Amino acid sequence: MGSDTVKPRWAALARDTNETKIQMAINLDGGDFPPETDSSLAASIEGDASQASKSQTISVNTGIGFLDHMLHALAKHAGWSLALACKGDLHIDDHHTAEDVCIALGYAFAQALGSATGLARFGSAYAPLDEALSRAVVDLSNRPYSVVELGLKREKIGDLSCEMIPHCLQSFAQGARITLHVDCLRGFNDHHRAESAFKALAVAVRVATSRVAGKEGEVPSTKGTLSA
């Protein structure tokens, strides 16, 4: 059995700027958080976007309710444990908080994932939410690129600007250094369109990051590397 199959895929980070202060811990396989996780973060499993089960612990508090809802859905259906807290300059608007949280989430994802050795690398999924249907396709490419078409028409959903929703996905792809395509294929309710997109992304990420039996130690690339 290779070491990649037993090494915990987790990370904890803090990202502070003049605009946002973020603390985060993630485990891509669910379960516990890394031992260096800030004790106050690990203890703050509360709020509307919080959920604890035998396989996952999720707590998201960004100060933007709909963003919390989307990241909760992402973590739940990707199979992650995720603790995330952000204090941002929401007196200005939602931009810095939403962008920085998703960049930091991408950083944490990349740090937790480490090498793509032995992994599926590619993942795709469809996810419905009532009348809405979205498709997500992911490549653990180490080449950050994103195309996101959600077709949202409202100005805001809750306190999150609709223009920030695709930007959040783009920011995650940038921080995570993945290639990401997300399209909402149909739907008339913007809440449903956005949520189905995050759920499709979650399932696609779960597939892409899955370990492939018999491929331990192998790089899933014709180049022989995904680090250059």
TrEMBL record:
Cross-referenced PROSITE patterns: IGP_DEHYDRATASE_1, IGP_DEHYDRATASE_2
Instruction: Kindly give the InterPro entries that the UniProt entry links to this protein.
Output: IGPD_sf (IPR038494), ImidazoleglycerolP_deHydtase (IPR000807), ImidazoleglycerP_deHydtase_CS (IPR020565), Ribosomal_Su5_D2-typ_SF (IPR020568)
Q: Which UniProt keywords apply?
A: Amino-acid biosynthesis, Histidine biosynthesis, Lyase
Origin: domain of life:
Eukaryota
Q: Name one Pfam family in it.
A: IGPD
What does it catalyze? D-erythro-1-(imidazol-4-yl)glycerol 3-phosphate = 3-(imidazol-4-yl)-2-oxopropyl phosphate + H2O
Q: What class of enzyme is it?
A: lyase
Q: Which family does it belong to?
A: Belongs to the imidazoleglycerol-phosphate dehydratase family.
Record-given protein name? Imidazoleglycerol-phosphate dehydratase
Q: Which organism is it from?
A: Apiospora phragmitis
Tell me its EC number(s), please: 4.2.1.19
Annotated membrane-spanning segments are none
Which pathway does it serve? Amino-acid biosynthesis; L-histidine biosynthesis; L-histidine from 5-phospho-alpha-D-ribose 1-diphosphate: step 6/9
- Tell me yes or no: is Transit peptide among this UniProt entry's keywords: no
* Residues annotated as signal peptide: none
Asked if the Swiss-Prot or TrEMBL record annotates the protein with the keyword Hydrolase, the reply is no
